[in-house]
Amino acid sequence: MFGDISKAEKIYVACGYTDMRKSIDGLAAIVQQNFQLNPFQNSLFLFCGRQRNRMKALCWEGDGFVLLYKRLENGSFQWPMNAEAVRSITYQEFRWLLEGLSIDQPKAVKKLHITACL
Fold first, then answer.
1. Cα–Cα dist 13/86, whole Å
2. Tens of pLDDT along 88-116?
3. Where in the sequence is the domain holding 10, given as residue range(s)?
4. How far apart are CA 92 and CA 33, in angstroms?
């Protein structure tokens, strides 16, 4: 389905600023060259401009790329600006980001990943 991002297995955020003049080919090149990830995998890649009021999302649908663009009329995204080049986030963190919240919610209950029983 055209632009159905709910089918993405992973969501990646490009930390810091991205040139919003880049289109599909430019963003796919960033994913491949800068992040060493495959832009053709079943993932959603998120990019944000310097003013933090514009976001682009790139995803592969099996027969072509979909490029989604969102511009906020009021407010800004709480985009991660740390030194990491790319960061994997959950769907909940993605929702927080779209709602103008930070993806690092200090009071949120975090899921534990237990590898062995005690």
1. 6
2. 999 989 998 888 888 877 666 666 667 77
3. 5-98
4. 28
Residue 7 and residue 17 in contact, taking contact as beta carbons nearer than 8 Å: no
Cut 0.90: pTM above it: no
Strands in 10-14's sheet, in edge-to-edge order, are 65-71, 54-60, 43-48, 10-14, 86-89
Q: What does the buried/exposed string (b/e) look like for 53-79 if buried means 16 or more CB atoms within 10 Å of the residue's CB?
A: bbbbbbbbeeeeebeeeeeeeeeebbb
Say if 105 falls within a structural domain. Answer: no
Residue 109 in domain: no
Our count of domains for the chain comes to 1
**Residue whose token pair is 């491949």:** 32
